[in-house]
Amino acid sequence: MPFGNIKLNDGNKVPAIAFGTGSALNNTDVTNSIIQALKTGFSHLDTAQRYGSERYVGAAIKESKLSRADIFVCTKYNSGPTFRQSLEESLERLSMTYVDLYLIHYPERMENHEWREVEMIKQDGLARSIGVSNYNLQQLQALVERAKIKPAVNQIYLHPYNYKDHKALIEYAARYDIVIEAYGCLDPITKYPGGPVDAPVAAAANRRGVLPVQILLAWVKAKVAVFITTSTSKHHLQEHLAAADIRPLTQYEIAAIDVAGACGLPS
Fold first, then answer.
1. Extended beta strands in the chain, E state
2. Which family does the record claim for this protein (predicted)?
C-alpha cells in the first residue's frame, strides 16, 4: 500500500513522502522532473524561495492537469521585509492562492520578526499550515513557549549518522504533536558510503530482498512521520515509493542501524 497521510496538530494532513526540488536541483528548470514525480505517484512537492524552483512547481502542476486540491505544496521563507510579502511573491511564482505548508527556512530568518506574523498568514488563509525548518531543540522550545498557534512541522536534516544529535528534539516535538520532516535521509548511501551503517542496512535489505535505499527510508519512517527525497530518475522514484510496501523493520534492526550511526561518519 502507498505511503499515507499524516495528521498535523492543526487538523490538516500531509502526505508522508515528498518530492524535493532543492539540493542538486537548486536553480535549475525542474518542470519535467516534477511532472515525472507527479505521474509516478508523488502528491507532496517541497520547494523554497531559495531553491529557485517555485515557478517550475507552478508550471508543472498546471501542465500535469491535476487538481490543485490533490497536490500538497510546501514552500519556505528565506528573505523579504515581511513574511506576508515574501509569501505573496512565492504564491505569484507558484500561480497559487495558498500553499498547504509554509516554513521559516532557518531560525536566523526569524530575527527582527515575530511568530505572530506567521500565525496571521495561516489565519488569513495564505497557508493552511505553518512551521519551521532546521530548528534545534532549544530554538523549538523557545518558539513553542510564545506561540499562540504552534508550528505544525519542523523540517530537519536527518539520517542515521546524526540521529543521536536529534533524538531529544524528535521526542520533544512528539509531545506537542509537531511533525518532524526529514531531508537528506539517503546521505549514508549517496554521500557517505562505506561507513558503519552500511552493514546493518545491507543485512536488513538482504533479509527482505529489497534495496538498501528502501531500508533507509523505512528506518526514517520509523523515526519520524514525513520525509523528503528526490531524483531525476523515474526508476529511483518508483523504488522510493515502493519502500512503503516492504516488511517493517524490527526493533532489533532499527536499533542496529542506530548503534552503527552513533559510531560516526566514515573517515
1. 5-7, 13-15, 17-20, 44-46, 72-77, 99-104, 127-133, 153-157, 179-183, 226-229
2. Belongs to the aldo/keto reductase family.
- Count Cβ atoms within 10 A of the Cβ of residue 129 and give its class: 0-12 exposed, 13-18 middle, 19 or more buried: buried
State pLDDT tens for residues 85-121.
999 999 999 999 999 999 999 998 787 789 999 999 9
The per-residue pLDDT for range 32-85, each reduced to its tens digit, is 999 999 999 999 999 999 999 999 999 999 999 999 999 999 999 988 889 999
Record: fold of 5-190+224-247: TIM Barrel (3.20.20)
Is the alpha carbon torsion for 230, 234, 236, 241 positive or negative?
positive
Cβ atoms of 55 and 93 within 8 Å: the answer is yes
105 is in an annotated binding site: yes
SS3 59: helix
Question: So what's the pLDDT on residue 22?
Answer: 84
Q: Is residue 26 over pLDDT 80?
A: no
DSSP for 15-49, written as a single string: ESEEEE--GGGTTS--HHHHHHHHHHT--EEE--G
- Residue whose C-alpha is closest to residue 228's, from 39, 66, 8, 23: 23
Cβ(237)–Cβ(40) under 8 Å?
yes
Q: Is 51 a catalytic residue?
A: yes
Average pLDDT over residues 150-162: 98
Rounded-to-5 percentages of helix, strand, coil across the chain: 50, 15, 35
